[in-house]
Amino acid sequence: MSLSDLFKSKWQQSDVVLRKQAVQNLNSTDLDALLDIAKNDSEADIRRIAVQKISFPSHKRIACRGKRCLRSKRYKRIFEKNII
């Protein structure tokens, strides 16, 4: 944990385990945070959790527009199953 982590939300921490737990604790009403995480987090598992928590299909499409997201086979399966 770095000094700058003291001033960040839990989902923005540098520690992967803490970030993952924080994202798991977010709910679908935390849309801005979930979209940011889905687009920008460095860990694929954390991005996947964020996308799964987004409830509106149009928002899931927005979250998955990044190259990282669409490269993942898991995200492609989400699209193929018409979840989004």
Brief characterization of the structure:
The protein is mainly alpha-helical and 84 residues long. It contains 6 helices and no strands.
Mean pLDDT: 76
- Secondary structure: number of strands: 0
- H/E series: HHHHHH
Q: Give the N-to-C terminal Cα separation.
A: 36 Å
Secondary structure tally, helices? 6
Helix-and-strand structural type: mainly alpha
Shape, principal axes of CA atoms:
elongated
The total number of structural domains is 1
Helix content: 55-70%
Task: Please characterize this protein's 3D structure.
With about 80 residues, this protein is mainly alpha-helical. It has one domain. The chain contains 6 helices and no strands. Helix 2 packs parallel to helix 4 (about 55-65). The relative contact order is 0.13.
Top keywords for this entry?
84 residues; mainly alpha
Helix and strand topology:
Elements: H1 16-25, H2 31-40, H3 44-53, H4 57-63, H5 67-71, H6 73-80
Helix pairs in contact: 1-3, 2-3, 2-4
